[in-house]
Specification:
- α6 links the parallel β6 and β7.
- It contains 6 helices and 11 strands.
- It has a 7-stranded mixed sheet, with helices on both faces. The chain has a two-stranded antiparallel ribbon with strand order 3-4.
- The model has no long low-confidence stretch (mean pLDDT about 90).
- The chain folds into 2 domains: about 150 residues, Rossmann fold; about 80 residues, no CATH class.
- With about 240 residues, the protein is of the alpha/beta class.
- Helix content is about 25%, strand content about 20%.
């Protein structure tokens, strides 16, 4: 859900067109890292979810992780996440990395213990598909600096290229984005642009002083019965 993997190759040439040597590419809300994993050079990826950042760091270190996640194991990790369980289970320590790995790989639509166990459904093993996909990213994320923080507290190097895949307005949010303030975010984009950064934002809509530099109708399967075809857009602030 929300993956930018299908459009990354179309929007990256726009964002990287005038990139200078050693210029940083920043993602303050990295999510599935499906854009930044296709960028080379200096890269910083941040997110407010400590479990997500712990998972990415653990994958960089190639930490041992289960390649099969049963519903029982999923339930144990969910209990740890909810503060109901703190013991070691199934021969592994349920630290932030392990809880993150299990929660993101085995939760339906990647909703991190908010959408139920994805397991086998309609002859598809969604957990295996998630794991197979992310294992392909492991080599690509080497060299990325992962940081746990909110976008407004991220220390951004001078004159960086910033790409924001924000929680879309009027769509169902993940647990870490349910209090997202869109008005505050758009003002942050203006401030960052005025400070010398180039800021790109993925959304369906934006304030009038932001220009759409790319758009495409994309099919999104949000659940097993409903399919939507919204128009993805890439915006940049034009003062």
């Amino acid at each position: 859900m929300g993956s930018k993997n299908r459009i990354a190759k179309e929007i990256l040439p726009i964002m990287l067109k005038d990139r200078k040597e050693n210029q940083y590419f920043i993602e303050p809300m990295v999510g599935g890292a499906n854009v930044i994993d296709k960028v080379t050079g200096n890269r910083i990826a941040a997110d407010k979810s400590k479990y997500l950042i712990a998972m990415w760091k653990g994958l960089q270190e190639n930490r041992p992780r289960p390649t099969e996640i049963s519903k029982d194991l999923y339930n144990v990790a969910r209990d740890v996440f909810n503060g109901k369980e703190t013991e070691f289970n199934h021969g592994m320590e349920m630290d932030d990395f392990m809880v993150g790995w299990i929660g993101f790989m085995a939760s339906f639509n990647g909703r991190f213990f908010d959408g139920g166990y994805n397991g086998n459904y309609l002859k598809r093993n969604y957990t295996k598909e998630s794991i197979d996909n992310i294992e392909k990213q492991v080599e690509k994320i080497k060299g990325i600096e992962f940081i746990e923080c909110t976008y407004e507290h991220l220390q951004v190097p001078k004159q960086s290229i910033i790409y924001c895949d924000i929680p879309y307005l009027n769509t169902k949010q993940y647990f870490t984005s349910k209090d997202f303030n869109h008005t505050k975010f758009w003002q942050w984009c203006r401030d960052m642009t005025n400070n010398g950064h180039k800021v790109f934002v993925s959304e369906y809509t934006a304030p009038e002083d932001f220009k759409c530099v790319w758009s495409k109708e994309v099919t999104n399967s949000m659940n097993t019965t409903n399919t939507m075809k919204p128009t993805e857009r890439l915006f940049i602030y034009c003062p």
